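seq:
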Amino acid sequence: MGTVSSQELTDPDGVTVENDLPRSPAARTTRTHLICLSRAHNKFAITTYQELAKDGKKPNNILISPLCLGLGFGMIYLGAEGHTKDELYNAFHLDEVQEYHLLSAYAAVDWDILRSAMPKGCILEVAIRLFAHLDYKMCSTYEHLCINYEISRLKPLDFYGRPDLARREINKWVEDRTQGRIKDVLPLGIIDRDTRLFLISAVHLKVHWYHPFDVKNTRKMAFYLTMKETLEVQMMNQQNSFRIGYLPKHDCDVLELPFSNVHLKMYIFLPRKADGIRKFEDKLNRALIETLEDNIQEEYIDVFLPKFVHEIGWPPKDPIMKAGIKVVFKQEKADLSGIDGSNDLFLKNVFHYVYIEVDESGDDEFKGVSSHHHHDVGTSRPDIRPQRIFKADHPFCFYLRDDRTGAILFMGRIVRPVLAL
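struct:
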């Protein structure tokens, strides 16, 4: 987050606004507070993921970006009061972050991980914003907080008079914000005349591996949906040194695959049994994630991983409410008076869109990055036979983490790898 010394500030939409609030020393957050916020968000991430995993008798693909959801609700937290604020505070475990540093930690997470011009190790486009009906105007304190901390300001739209036009305007903003990679994100009917406040959280990810897979090694193989049902998939393959481990309490193997910028990594959890995914999910907790380094070590292995594209857009209201965020959605009880000064603003809905594409791709731009950053992992050694095989030919879970902060950007479950939607 940049430092502004003048009395005028320019928000992300290019609007210059007088700044009558002093810059707080908290605006310069430390790495410690950023990590604390990331840890708190990770706890929310696991809770929300597990609520999704419980849904339905037959496991399906799951994909969420808990960090993007958390940053979106962070915008709401800035203007929440009373019980509404308490629920958000508890659901996101914000007691783990010093209140004095909370705002700047949010801004630092947003900037360092999602909006920095530094190499991301992937194509990553994010669009997060609050939209409100025309009648609701931001109070000056909330507006200046958004500008000071480089948060997209609340955008007014005519939800009551022209709800579908408002939907199209949000779609256009998301398309522009993501360089055209996310188009027509909101479906018909998601916006109605009763909408007063709406949150969009959309993200597009295309993986670039630090050590890409050779396209020549990709071939058709069976993926076991169940013990008896199979699906033919495009299976990537490479032999390299990666960090791998076995988790006996979860009866699953875990593989670490670094992205091309080194500090972003994908962790793949592969149950030993084809139907063991539920067992792993039930026992998933933050302690497992934070102690994972103690359970993995470098080995020369033969990796098989299916190519897949997964895209989902949906209103995750139910799992969010089950995670403890309820009052903000209730018209008669929500208190978002810190946003507009009134007592009748409430969140009608939230829409979460996530796209991930996993294939052989690397990025030559980062080949000069020193390998010592990731323990010299990923070196091909054709003269040595692999010590073991990691073959993701049945349902697996994964998450994408930023190693600098520990923040989980994506979590997912792949039961049916597909390339076309």
